Q: What sequence folds into this?
């Protein structure tokens, strides 16, 4: 690979970085919202009938522990800035 192609890749990476991070942030927010809707019973907010929550539980089981840790972590005012 030549130096010209490397420069092209760097410029392309700088141009797409903002879009990629915003897409990942939106995906994380949608995943959190889905977990809150389906597992709202754990928070005391029954949003779905238990039948549907139990049907979705095998697919969501691997993510439950990390989701709980994310929801219960301490947040700071500076977290919103970054």
A:
């Amino acid at each position: 690979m030549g130096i010209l192609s490397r420069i092209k890749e760097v410029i392309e990476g700088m141009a797409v970085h903002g879009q990629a991070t915003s897409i990942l942030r939106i995906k994380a927010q949608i995943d959190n919202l889905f977990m809150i809707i389906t597992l709202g019973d754990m928070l005391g907010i029954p949003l779905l009938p238990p039948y549907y929550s139990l049907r979705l539980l095998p697919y969501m089981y691997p993510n439950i522990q990390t989701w709980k840790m994310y929801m219960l972590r301490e947040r700071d005012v500076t977290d919103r800035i970054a």
About this structure: The chain has a mean pLDDT of 84. Residues 3-74 form one domain.
